[in-house]
Design goal:
- Helix 1 links the parallel strand 1 and strand 2.
- The chain has a 5-stranded parallel sheet with strand order 3-2-1-4-5, with helices on both faces.
- It is an alpha/beta fold and 142 residues long.
- It is globular and about 55 Å long.
- The longest helix is centred in the middle third of the chain and has 30 residues, at 49-78.
- It is built from 5 helices and 5 strands, in the order E-H-E-H-E-H-E-H-H-E.
């Protein structure tokens, strides 16, 4: 059925649930997984905010490394072959879709933050954008 599952994560508790469900599915069907963490680059801002933004970017990359290490560990414990990658992109949904295509994934498993109403309209959702634009099937976990 599925041979290669892409699991995007942002390190959040909700994304960890998506990871668990994706790994369980992969184990049950004998698939391998690729876990991706997309780090959004910060625009160049000068002056007194430059150091603050540089520190934030460093912290975000550390969070990515930690989340990917946890994912790799969970996959090992589940007996699921796993590769991880950290990608920098201003458009996370595009990076997720591109990774699924580049890696030949036949399913994307991701969580949804469950936004609704005005916040959904104003902020949007990476999951919604992946659902709308990906050619690869998407399984959304909540």
């Amino acid at each position: 059925m599925y041979r290669h599952i892409l699991i995007p994560t942002d390190g959040s508790e909700l994304a960890e649930q998506g990871l668990k469900q994706g790994l369980a599915l992969a184990k049950s069907v004998g698939a391998k997984v690729s876990v991706i963490f997309v780090v959004e680059p910060l625009s160049e801002i000068g002056g007194r905010y430059r150091d603050l933004l540089a520190r934030f970017a460093e912290i975000r990359k550390e969070e990515a490394t930690s989340a990917l290490d946890r994912a790799a560990h969970a996959a090992r414990e589940a007996g699921v072959p796993c590769e991880t990658s950290q990608v920098e992109s201003g458009q996370p949904h595009q990076a997720i879709i591109a990774a699924a295509e580049d890696k030949g994934c036949d399913l994307i498993v991701m969580s949804s933050h469950g936004r609704s109403g005005l916040s959904k309209l104003l902020i949007g959702s990476v999951t919604n954008k992946v659902l709308a634009q990906a050619k690869t099937p998407v399984l959304v976990c909540q």
